[in-house]
Amino acid sequence: MCGDLRQLTLELDWPKSSVYRLNEVGFYFRVVDGQQPDRIFPLVPITGKITGQRAKFFFIWLDGHPPAQLPLTLEVEVFAVNKGLESGAARRFRISDARRP
User: Fold this and answer.
1) Residue 82 is part of a domain; what is its CATH number?
2) Into how many domains does the chain fold?
3) What is the tens place of the pLDDT at every residue in 21-70?
4) In this structure, are residues 15 and 53 in contact, taking their beta carbons and an 8 Å threshold?
5) Among 7, 11, 2, residue whose Cα is nearest residue 72
6) Spatial distance between the Cα atoms of 42 and 57, rounded to a whole number of angstroms
7) How many helices (H) and strands (E) does the chain have?
8) Cα(75)–Cα(34) distance, rounded to whole angstroms?
9) CA distances (Å), origin 10, targets 1, 34, 72, 83
C-alpha cells in the first residue's frame, strides 16, 4: 500500500435477539469528535462483509505524505438503519493510532 493511503478495519457484532437480520440493515458511521485527515466514512449507510452475526467493514482514505501524517484519534458513532429508514440506537467508540508519527 502507498505511504499516503491508510486503511481501517472495523468489526461489528450483531445481537441474535434483534428483530432484523444483519443483511437487512445498513450502518451509518459518523465522526463526533476528532479531525479526519480525509473523509473516512461515507455519507450513506453501508453494509459490511457478513459472517454469521458479525459484519466486517474496510475503509481506505488518503492521509497525505508520511512525514505530514498526524496521529489518528477519533470518536465515532455508528447506528443501524433498515429499508424503511428506521434507525437504531447509536453506539460510540474510539479509534486511536498512537503508532503514527
Assistant:
1) 2.60.40.10
2) 1
3) 999 999 999 999 998 878 899 999 999 999 999 999 999 988 766 677 77
4) yes
5) 7
6) 12
7) 0, 6
8) 6
9) 18, 18, 15, 23
